Amino acid sequence: MSAVIIDGKKVAAEMREKLAKEIEGLKAKGITPGLAVVLVGENPASKKYVASKEKTCGELGIKSLGYKMPETISQAELIKLIDDLNANPEVHGILVQLPLPKGLDSKAVMNRISPAKDVDGFGPDALGKLVLDEPGFVPCTPHGAMKMLESYGIDPAGKHAVVVGRSIIVGKPLAMLLLRKNATVTICHSRTRDLKAECLRADILCAAVGKARMITGDMVKEGAAVIDIGINVTPEGKIVGDVDFDAAKERAGHITPVPGGAGPMTIAMLMYNTVLSAKMSAGLALDF
Ligand code: GUN
Q1: How do residues 20-79 score in pLDDT, each as one tens digit?
Q2: Is residue 118 annotated as a catalytic residue, yes or no?
Q3: Which of 7, 118, 120, 228 is catalytic?
Q4: In ligand 1, which atom is closest to the CA atom of 266?
Q5: For residues 150 and 85, what is the distance between their CA atoms, to the nearest angstrom?
Q6: Helix, strand or coil for residue 52?
Q7: Which CATH architecture has domain 140-263?
Q8: What's the predicted TM-score (pTM) here?
Q9: Domain spans, the chain
Q10: Is the fold of 30-114 the same as that of 140-263?
Q11: What is the CATH number of domain 30-114?
Q12: Cystine design at 228: which of 122, 140, 243, 249 (Cβ 3.0–4.6 Å)?
């Protein structure tokens, strides 16, 4: 039996629609959500991601303030830019596109972003709140994965969730979010002894490693929900996930495609965090 395909584009479109209504309401109160997008250098993938983020801001009525900096920018100049954006009341969110060019200290730059504007949710304040189960900015990609599960009626409570990958921006926060929803969570990584055996126990299998098709069909339990967070380019130039989609979809109950799954959701959740930040700065709450 072939799996239900989780349509990330559709879930993202629904999220954008809800946000557009929220933004309309905010504008009526004289508040325009603002997102500063900082791009340093000429990395082609980063340029593409930034263009997509700015385009989505435009479509939703979020004011996007673009800062395209040369790769010769110094650490001190970049820190000064972050300080200015932290102090700018028009800016509710600050996104510094990663990776930064060699020679710049990404950690120092990211940690300089005010916790109140950390819409990527990569800083210690956001990640600490996630672990403490306190409200805060949730990193966009794992948040998008949770919204896709929710949208297809997949409740993690009591289920065994396996997250392959322990990155700070996806694997670890995703494991925390699944735990928050009462899943029993296993995190696998490069030192995991028997990855296949671990994956085969997963009712919800999430892959966030960055290795093309490393999760093969025989690693998927019959009926599992498979969330593929990898974006990889094959030698033939094809974009594929971390999961062998064609084989996995024959065993999974639900599966996200790449492209068209986690990718569109990431940008939608960045917009969500920006609107959330604008609302919080006005003492209002956002809850969907
Ligand atoms: N580079 C790749 N993905 C991301 C992301 O989600 N946020 C930022 N800031 N940089 C990235």
Answers
A1: 999 999 999 999 999 999 999 999 999 999 999 999 999 999 999 999 999 999 999 999
A2: no
A3: 120
A4: 6
A5: 34
A6: helix
A7: 3-Layer(aba) Sandwich (3.40)
A8: 0.96
A9: 30-114, 140-263
A10: yes
A11: 3.40.50.10860
A12: 243
